[in-house]
Input
Amino acid sequence: MEVKIEQKEKYTQITVLNDKLDTTVAPELKSELVVVAGKGERNMILDIGQCQYCDSSGLSAILVANRLCKNANGTFIVTGMNPEVERLVKISQLHTVLNIAESMDEAVGMLNGQ
Output
């Protein structure tokens, strides 16, 4: 799995560089997210703009990050969803649970309360 993790002033940006977020990638992503949270990060933005496909294990990794941030009284935002992934999220009713932004700028704005 390829992932880029960037520590910003108010959040950590995690960018998934794979085109699939599935059973082969999700466990490693979960591990990375737990490490980031373990370092005390409360706010995370997950950019999945390069992912063309996501399955239930990918959604599970996203939910883990959401729970980690909530438990730390922080905010978790997913951005860059392509139409296929967005459809899966809506079918799963996860759009009612997750903070979803159309772009990185929008996600940062959500964190800054804009």
In short: The helical segments are 26-38, 56-71, 83-91, 104-111.
